[in-house]
Amino acid sequence: MGTSRRPALLAVAAGLLVAACTTGGAGGGGAAPAPRSDEQVTVSVWSNFADRELAALNRVLDGFHAKHPNITVRSEGSQDDDKILQSIRGGTAPDVAISFSTDQLGQYCSTGAWQNLGPYLERDKVDLDQIPKAVRDYTEYRGTRCAMPLLADVYGLYYNKELFAKAGITSPPRTLSELTDIAKRLTVFNPDGSIQVAGFVPTINFYNHRPQMLAPHWNARWQKPDGSSALASDPGWKEMFTWLKELVDFYGRDRLAKFTASAGQQYSADNAFQQGRVAMMIDGEYRTAFVSQYSPNLAYGTAPFPVADSRQNLHGTGYATGTIIGIPRGAKNAGAAWELVKHLTTDTDALVELSNGLKNVPTTRDALRSPKLQADENFQTFTKISESPNLASSPSSPTLASAVKFTEDFATRWLNGEVANLDEGLAALAKQIDDNAALGGK
C-alpha cells in the first residue's frame, strides 16, 4: 500500500457495477464449507500490488500455503478494480479480490459484486471488535459486510525537523492556527517572488492533500443522519474551505501553481517533502518507507495533524482508509477463499508480517500491539492515531466516489477564485451530490 495506487480510484463506471450484478444470483447466501484436508484446491488472488509490494504479499501467501498444503494460491498482481469487475461480469472472477478503492465499497456490497461475508463471520465466530471502529465502518455498507480490512492507511503530519530548528520551532503544531503561523514562518520566496520552500501547500490534490484526509480535523461530516449531503449544513466544511483559501491567498495562486508543477512526483525520490522543499504535509504512514528508501538522511518527524482551534479535544484524530479484501461474485472456490481471507485479516502473525513488508498499519488490536511489529518512532505515530476513539473514515455509500470527486472539483474552483459566495457554492455542491445519489451515481 502507498505506491502509485494512492489515491483510491474514483471513477469505476457505475454501469459496469450494475452489469456485473445481472449475471446469476447474489452470491454469499450461505457459508461455503472449507475444503477437506485431502482435497486439493487452487485459489486465485487478484490485487493491484506490483514489484516490492507484490513480493511482500506473496511471502504471506506462502505462509498460508504452508499451513494449508492442500490449498494452492495463485497470485496475480497489477489487477485493478476495473479488471476485477470485468471478470465478475464475464463469469471469470478470481476467488479472492484485493482492492485499494474503499470509496467503491458501497457499490460492491449493495450490488452483490462482492459476496456477503456475514455467514462466514458468524459460523467461525470472528471477533470484529479486534478491528478499530473506523476501519470496520469502511468495510461494510448498511449492515452488509462484503469485505475485510487488509491493513490500513492512517494520515498525519510530516514535518522537517531541520527547518523547524533553524526557525527556533521546538514542536509540531497542534492547532490549525499554529500550522498557519509556522507555514508562513518557514516559507521562503526567491528574489523573483517564486516559492523556494513552502511551509505547507494548501493546493487540493497536491500529493495527499485531499478533502477526505483533511475533513476529520474540523470534524466535518459527509452525510446527515438521513444520508443526504452535509456539505452545506456542517460548519466544519465552511471552516475548512475558508482556512484553505486564506493560505492560498498568502502564497498566491500563480505562485502555487508554478511550485506544484515543478515539485517531484509523489511516490518518487523527487518528492518535494523528501527534497526539503515542503516543510509540512499531510500523508500516510507508508511515507516512512519512501523516506527511508530515497532520503535516509532527512531529519523529519511525524505527529497527529493539527485540528481546528475550536475542536482541540479532537487532537490525535486522523483519517483512515486502506486495502480491502473480499470474495467476488462467481468465485469458484468460495470456501477455500474464505479460509485465505480469514487468515490474512485475523491472523496476528500474518498481519504483522504484511505490515512489516508494506509499511502499513495493521488492522487488529493484537497486531498493533505485537512485539514483532517493526515500528520506529515516526511509524508509531500512526499506530497511535489508529487507536484514537476519534479516528474517522468516509461513510460507505454507493455514490461516495462521486461525492469525493465533486468535492475535489469544487475545492479547486473555490481556491482558484471561481466561486463568488462560499455558502451558495456549498449549497450547490450538496445539491449536486444529492441529485447524483438520487440517480444511483449514474
UniProtKB/TrEMBL annotation:
PROSITE patterns xref list: PROKAR_LIPOPROTEIN (PS51257), TAT (PS51318)
Keyword annotations of the record: Signal, Transport
InterPro entries hit by this protein: SBP, TAT_signal
Species of provenance: Streptoalloteichus hindustanus
Superkingdom, taxonomy of origin: Bacteria
Record-level GO BP terms: maltodextrin transmembrane transport; maltose transport
Signal peptide: 1-26
Entry similarity comment: Belongs to the bacterial solute-binding protein 1 family.
Gene3D superfamilies cross-referenced by the UniProt entry: Periplasmic binding protein-like II
Cell wall biogenesis/degradation is among the record's keywords: no
Protein name: Carbohydrate ABC transporter substrate-binding protein, CUT1 family
Pfam families for the chain: SBP_bac_1
GO cellular component: ATP-binding cassette (ABC) transporter complex, substrate-binding subunit-containing
Bilayer-crossing regions: none
GO MF entry, a single one: maltose binding
